[in-house]
Amino acid sequence: MTANYEKAMSQSYGHPKGALICSEFSEIQTTVFLWLNSLKYFITGVNFILRTVCILLVAWIGYPTETEKLLMTTKVTFFVQYFNTAFLLLLVNADLGEQPISFGLTGGIESDFDKSWFKVIGNTITGTMIFSAVFPMMEAFGFFGLRLLFRIMDKGCSSDPYKTKKTSIQAYINTYSGPLYLMHFKYSALLNIIFVTMTYGYGIPILFPIAAFGILVLYLVEKTMLYYAYRLPPMYDERLSQSVIGMLNYAPLIFLGFGYWMASNKQMLSNEHL
């Protein structure tokens, strides 16, 4: 059988139409592969942009106290990133036409958590979480490189520690000091990791070790930055931490809800339905 298959394949490649079909299939497969792999990086990049926009919008709205502004920034940033990471692909590709209530989601191709969903969307979510886990390191090194570049430009590639182009003390401090310690989007990143994992962790168990790795990376990066890079952080009170802990109470409910939905598909329980 193997010999016949190899013979047939060699004949198809030798035939002009067969070569054309194989070439077209290879191009389509490569295009789909590139799109699916670039999508996971695109989602993380969009999360970074959304985080910046949310911080600016909340600061523009203004709140009477700094704690209230931090609380609102954390919540808004988390909800936007969570929707973009966990639900946007789910809703775009959903086809709930067979359900009692479709909410107008009938234009997609996925009606349930079946093998097609895990192969395409589940793989994209997993790749996004892997990239998001290492993104804090990339972000820290990237901004460190920018600060180093600005300092080199200020000195003009000179080794003299007293040489500078700055004309004021504050401008000099802003160039040679570390970044501000902003706690709100750190909490929102942590919440996003936990809630995305709880949403799809029942059907994609590998998300749990990925989330543990992402939390460890975030902890080590922030600990290192606090010692060697950040300016003296402000004195946060316990309200921000208590608010985040209160939001975590809803994560098990999401895990149970989506877990029940995934378990209702027999493909999750037996290979006979694959």
At a glance:
By secondary structure, the protein is mainly α.
Textual characterization of the structure:
The longest helix has 46 residues, at 16-61. It is globular and about 75 Å long. The chain has 9 helices and no strands. The chain is mostly helical and 274 residues long. The chain has helices at residues 2-14, 16-61, 66-92, 115-155, 169-176, 184-200, 207-228, 238-248, 251-263. It has one domain (60-273).
How would you describe this structure in keywords?
globular, mainly alpha, 0% strand, 274 residues, 9 helices, single chain
List the helices and strands and how they pair.
Layout: H1 2-14, H2 16-61, H3 66-92, H4 115-155, H5 169-176, H6 184-200, H7 207-228, H8 238-248, H9 251-263
Helix pairs in contact: 1-2, 2-3, 2-4, 3-6, 3-8, 4-7, 6-7, 6-8, 6-9
Integer average pLDDT = 80
Instruction: Tell me, briefly, the overall form.
Output: globular
DSSP, total strands: 0
What is the count of structural domains?
1
Note the beta-strand portion.
under 5%
* Rg, nearest Å: 25 Å
In which range does the helix fraction lie?
over 70%
User: Unreliable segments (pLDDT under 50, ≥5 consecutive)?
Assistant: 5-9
Query: Major sheet, described briefly?
Result: none
Our measurement of the CA-to-CA distance between the termini, rounded to an integer number of angstroms, reads 25 Å
